[in-house]
User: Fold this.
Amino acid sequence: MLSFISSANPWLVGVGLNTVLLSLVWFAPKKLLTPAGVFHAWLLGILIWGTLGWQGYLVVTFYFIVGSGVTRIGMAQKEALGIAEKRSGARGPENVWGSALTAALCALGIGLLNAKLFPLSSQSLVPSLESLLLLGYVASFSTKLSDTCASEVGKAYGKSTFLITTLQPVPRGTEGAVSLEGTFAGVVGSAVIAIIGWGVGLISPLGIVWCLLAALIATNLESVIGATLQSKYTWLTNEIVNILNTLIGAIAAILFALIWANSFS
Assistant:
């Protein structure tokens, strides 16, 4: 079975696999995705399988399952306080791409490199362009799971929450608020994704470190954006902030890898 999958056209495998798995999600009693969200997740899953195979697909699937589960922690309490995610955590298209647009761009870049559509060889750089894009891919999901865990665990269990810019106590769920419990959960979430990325061969052991550092920086910068800018600009929605968050995480991890390589080459 595995040999058949590895030898089959990855895009066709992606279509079939995503159709089956998202059909299960569609009929599940607890709605993890809206109808439109299912379609967009289907497109995302096909892109990831087609460009990165089962390794990249495992990373995005793990994020989706754990992120959805974490969102439902303390849901009744968060809904009573008015700080729960809308639709009881069911993801729509805006959530799918808010979380995964950066990763999708990294995967698309790798697909274009593998298709040899550019005269530049990815092996002409150290680290290679492909390895940097793979690091960006993993780092983006490491960053997003860090943000999701920090936010949802903090809203459910944060005993003391502080505004990141002033360190003044604020109610749970306030934009830009941080807590010790949420921060710890965020570090754990980012580490797990990074370790999975290393375990399936997408990144090196050192890449785990870059993902952790990048996720910590990006998650805290997102809190700063939430505390200072989000209320001032109506276009700066949670989904736009999520895209910025994952983009910062991916870029930071790539920069760490480049600086390290150039410092010790």
Observations:
- The radius of gyration is 19 Å.
